[in-house]
Amino acid sequence: MLFESAATNWLIWGLILSLLELVVPGTYLIWFGLAGLLMSLLTFFIPMSLTAQIIWFAVFSGIFAFIGWYAYRYIFKTLKAPKEYQNLNDSAQQYVGRTVTVAEDVKDNQTKVQIGDSYWLAYSEKPLKKGATAKVTAVKDSLILVIE
User: Fold this and answer.
1) Which of 18, 20, 51, 142 pairs with 132 at a CA distance of 20 to 30 A?
2) pLDDT in tens, 34-70
3) pTM check: above 0.85
4) 135 - beta bridge partners?
């Protein structure tokens, strides 16, 4: 052990694990850090063997990890992103429902459509001609717009 007091050792390990949460990606070390801090408090008042300390640390770590898992699950389930941000990482989904201009004649059910100053691959079962307008009805594979 680093120090004579088990409480001091657990306090140091709890703080190290909690601070590592700031540098290491993920959200799991904080729960082990809290278990270490609880062990520090427990060993300050109740003397116990190293084996008992490790067992209690494992039990507290499991309890805190479960609480953390449940809390994050609850938060992410109830947290709803505003409508304008729901398709932030899927730019093609933003165009569903919009009217677009067909940039090339449809050949083999494929064409290109112009949206703003860019061109997107599109799929159409109708024989549309260049310059026609069509409505984006769905997105397939985040790249191909399905138009009618």
Assistant:
1) 142
2) 999 999 999 999 999 999 999 999 999 999 999 999 9
3) no
4) 99
